Amino acid sequence: MDAIELILSDARGQYIPQHFSQAIMDDGALLPGWSVPMDDLMTVLEGPEAEWYWDAWDSILTRAAFTRDGNTWHLWQDGDLFLICDDLLSDEEYQEFFGESRS
Question: pLDDT (tens digit, 9 = 90+) per residue, 28-81?
Fold first, then answer.
């Protein structure tokens, strides 16, 4: 995996959280490597009409992680949804993606 991976396009709109949750589940269990709060995941799977959908999505965005080969990626949403690994991200990539210097 690269330091930055596009997960879902913003063309999915309000369904990004639901589609993300569906993509990381298999028969009711998380796919290997994922760490996500299950109660929030279940709420988001209900879709945008669920009362706590956006609160659950915010929790997932701040707490979810994907680990592989000793590296950990976190979610970042700015329209599109990305997976980002800080350890693999060069200073130049960081500047280009976030528009600021790494502190």
Answer: 899 999 999 999 999 999 999 999 999 999 999 999 999 999 999 999 999 999
CA distances from residue 25 to 48, 55, 86, 96 in whole angstroms, order as listed: 18, 20, 25, 32
In a domain, 51, yes or no: yes
Judge whether 48 lies within some domain.
yes
Q: In terms of C-beta density within 10 A (0-12 exposed, 13-18 middle, 19 or more buried), how is residue 61 classed?
A: middle
17: nearest Cα among 49, 57, 50, 46? 57
Residues 10-24 have a mean pLDDT of: 97
Give the domain range for residue 23. 4-98
Q: Is residue 103 part of a domain?
A: no
Number of domains in the chain: 1
